[in-house]
Amino acid sequence: MSESPVLINISERIALLTLNRPDNRNSMDGEMMPAFKDAIQQIKDNDDLRCLIITGSGNSFCAGADFKQGLSGDKNQLPNETFMEFYQPFLDLGEITIPVIGALNGHAIGGGLGLALMCDIRIANKSAKYGANFVRLGIHSGMAISYLVPRLVGLPMANELLFTGRLITGEKSCDIGLVNYAENADEVLDKAWELAREIAACAPVAVKMMKRSIYRGLSWNPSQAAELEAHCQSRTFEMEDAKEGIHALLEKREPNFKGI
Fold first, then answer.
1. Burial of 48 (0-12, 13-18, 19+ CB in 10 A)
2. Domains of the chain, with CATH numbers?
3. Positions of E strands within the chain
4. pTM of whole model > 0.90?
5. What backbone torsions phi and psi does residue 162 show, to the nearest 5 degrees?
6. pLDDT tens track for 57-68
7. Is-contact 222 119, C-beta < 8 A?
8. How many CB atoms are closer than 10 A to CB 9?
9. How many CA atoms lie within 13 A of 167 on its CB side?
């Protein structure tokens, strides 16, 4: 039996969740997403935990959706419901009451960036690539990315990043406030553990209440935003431009979009 797509290790009242499909760049696929959902439920059920770290194995944190595999859902579902069901395991991070640290060991692109944005604190690999490249594939973003990015980096910078689908380095991500820290690749997880231990040493109930107060004060609701995005993404996914964008990605060439 192959190793699980998601690994959980617990030490010092801190859980380390590792996306474990390095050969597939830890992409979102039919194995990864159910395993991630189960892992998050285990975290929710463990009342002794004080912090969660999420990282990836290999050179990528998460490369987003696996377009080679494609999306599948109940044939009776509307297309937007299929997208929401696909993203839901990552969106479930919003129900975690303890702080969540993203140790972004490598690239986080598309839905992988969405996972990173669902973390409360992010440490990037300074030389890795981060971004929401959806428009370069001919589709709308998903997983509340169009909701989250403006709230983190401000509207002008968010517009530039989302309208161009540009990928930026971890160092640039830190400069604009998308992540908290940008470290050398081999120092990302160490920094995450340093922060997790500092959080775990604090009064756990007070920390949980603090997290809840922060997000309530911001009227933070990524899941609701993701529902609107799922509608927009499913509509664009049906267009010829999306087919062209995805084929171009898989064929490693520039797309030729026609607006249809």
1. exposed
2. 6-187 (3.90.226.10)
3. 6-11, 14-19, 51-56, 60-62, 100-104, 107-109, 121-125, 129-131, 168-169, 181-183
4. yes
5. -80, -30
6. 999 999 998 877
7. no
8. 10
9. 16
